[in-house]
Amino acid sequence: RLIVLIYDDPSDYEVPSSGYVIRLQQGALRACHLANYELLIHPCRIRSRSLVQELTSLIEQIRPAGIVLAAPLSNMKRIVGAIEATGAPFVRLSPGQENGDQFSVATNDREVSAEMTRYLASLGHRRIAFVKGNPSHKAVGNRFLGYKDGLRDCGLAYVEELVYAGDNSIGSGEKSAEKLLGLLAPPTAIFAANDDMAAGIMRVAMRRGIDIPGQLSLAGCDDIALARQIYPTLTTIRQPLSAMAETAATALIEDLQQSSAHSGTEVVDAKLKIRESTGPAPS
């Protein structure tokens, strides 16, 4: 009666985001507690060459009732294939476009990102920039598609110079801000694919004496703790991580109890969190 939550170790990154892991744990724990199951958490490093062997050995040793596999591991073919080969039941969180045959739990990244873009346009912004996330994170890529959808919905043209390829880090947010704010016609709003990059953009704007939100509106995605701690507080998209993990763990337990398997993808909606970093476009 054991569920395993496998996720990418946040301590391996430039700015560790423990809130992401805590929210996943909270959701999985709720489901396990209700069904009298135990939860084992297993952080791992996606850059490790021995990761496949590590996970295979773990599963063979403890023989869990099921596995909740978080992104970005959930969209890495070698990881998914290795777990599948063990025969252990598993559910993937935010697996991106290649969903495979396993039941998965996702959020409406594309739709809610389009909503954020439309919100910025409703404030009068016409030059809305976007900073992409790490290309290996397939679900994050859906946010870029949503940005383009939102522009189209508002009758705004897609402008290549207003898009920068980041890598989810604060440093790449700073680099993107230097480029975007250095344009002859800089954007009046920037939408970053995650909150870390948005924080990097904010740092550069402050150094340049650019008022947020008076001269520049800024939005992120994920709603990590930092989004509520910086000033001005960050408008962002709150990812339903806890609800997604709870849904995944519940599905695994129900499959075992009912001897039937869930299929397809269940979508748990994300929501906009409007805060101080966005406002009307400068006249």
Key features?
283 residues; single chain; 6-stranded parallel beta sheet
Walk me through this protein's architecture:
The structure is a single chain. 41% of the residues lie in helices and 18% in strands. The strands form 3 sheets. The protein has a 6-stranded parallel sheet, with helices on one face. It is elongated, with a radius of gyration of 20 Å. It is built from 9 helices and 12 strands. Helix 2 packs parallel to helix 3 (77-86).
What's the short version?
By secondary structure, the protein is an alpha/beta fold.
Write the layout of secondary structure elements.
Elements: E1 2-8, H1 18-34, E2 38-44, H2 51-62, E3 66-69, H3 77-86, E4 90-93, E5 104-107, H4 109-122, E6 128-132, H5 138-153, E7 163-165, H6 170-180, E8 189-192, H7 195-207, E9 217-219, H8 225-229, E10 236-238, H9 241-258, E11 265-268, E12 271-273
Parallel strand pairs: 1-2, 1-3, 3-4, 4-5, 5-11, 6-7, 6-8, 8-9
Antiparallel strand pairs: 10-12
Helix pairs in contact: 1-9, 2-3, 4-5, 6-7
- Could you give a short account of the major beta sheet? 6 strands, parallel
Which blocks of ≥5 consecutive residues have pLDDT under 50?
A: none
- Give the overall silhouette: elongated
Give me the count of strands: 12
Mean pLDDT: 91
Quaternary form:
single chain
How much helicity do the residues have? 40-55%
The main sheet orders its strands as: 2-1-3-4-5-11
Order of helices and strands: EHEHEHEEHEHEHEHEHEHEE
N-to-C CA distance: 61 Å
Rounded to an integer, what's the Rg over CA atoms?
20 Å
Q: Beta-sheet strand percentage?
A: 15-25%
Structural class comes to alpha/beta
Number of helices: 9
